[in-house]
Design a protein that fits this description.
With 277 residues, the protein is an all-alpha fold. It has 10 helices and 2 strands, in the order ααββαααααααα.
């Protein structure tokens, strides 16, 4: 979509003073409005299909394999296997939605569609663009997490009323991955570089206590896994859906707060360096 059609961006931006001057024009909503129009017209089917992968994992492994396994210990309590992996798959769903939107879509806009060059020739600043793309990734993560919550509720896999907080928690997970994904994508120069993203996502998906407890690993491997962001998301959402909330949930939130701050800062500076020379 050309810059001439981005009518919300043509209005004068509010003045922003202080350290954000020249970086933020106060028009993040214009980037979001454009993204919503693109999804409604062209990409709705792609967004929809991304929801079904974790649901299939839940049905095959949670209900199928779960009938053979029985229960899994979680913070000293036995939890049905399906209820154990369901929150992990919600975290994975939020991660996937955020990463797909903030990497592949952003890369095309940045390197081939030249969308950001058009946006930054208007009243938008690089932080408007960064936050707008992150919000779009959050929207996709919200769709996946909310849809998955409906499925797990129908199946009776949410064991506590605190499961209601799992959707906001999933948004925190999506926000962290979206901001960092956008920052990393800004350094990529070819589609082959996107393979590095999948190279990191697949081990995180399989090893972050998604399908079995982290205690099955050697101690050194546990520390490596706990350094990955997905493990923090999985454990946080699992605490909420089972009602077994631990003090460590604040560590998980702090981890994602740092991840979000670093990601937004890196992405803003990188977009400024690329398009506002």
């Amino acid at each position: 979509m050309s810059a001439s059609k981005l009518t919300p961006m043509e209005a004068p931006a509010p003045r922003v003073w202080g350290p954000l001057r020249g970086l933020y024009g106060g028009r993040t909503h214009a980037v979001v409005a454009r993204g919503m129009r693109v999804i409604a017209r062209n990409n709705w089917l792609i967004v929809l299909t991304g929801f079904f992968e974790p649901v299939f994992y839940l049905l095959s492994m949670g209900l199928g394999l779960g009938a053979l396994i029985g229960g899994v210990e979680f913070y000293g309590h036995e939890v049905p296997y399906a209820a154990y992996i369901a929150p992990a798959l919600m975290a994975v769903s939020a991660m996937n939605g955020a990463i797909y939107d903030s990497t592949m879509n952003v890369f095309f806009k940045m390197r081939y569609g030249k969308i950001y060059e058009q946006m930054l020739s208007t009243s938008l600043g690089p932080m408007d663009v960064a936050l707008g793309e992150i919000v779009m990734a959050l929207f996709r993560g919200l769709l996946y997490a909310s849809g998955f919550m409906v499925v797990t509720t129908v199946l009776g896999l949410n064991l506590s009323w605190t499961a209601l907080l799992a959707i906001p928690a999933a948004m925190v997970v999506a926000f962290g991955f979206a901001s960092f994904g956008l920052a990393i994508t800004s350094y990529m120069k070819s589609f082959q570089h996107l393979d590095l993203v999948w190279f990191m996502m697949i081990p995180m998906f399989l090893l972050s206590a998604t399908f079995f407890p982290i205690s099955v690993y050697p101690e050194w491997a546990q520390w490596v896994i706990m350094a990955f962001p997905l493990w923090h998301g999985v454990d946080m959402i699992r605490q909420l859906t089972t009602g077994l909330i631990q003090p460590s949930i604040w560590v998980h939130l702090g981890y994602f707060a740092v991840m979000i701050l670093l990601g937004v800062t890196m992405a803003t500076k990188r977009l400024k360096a690329l398009f506002l020379r």
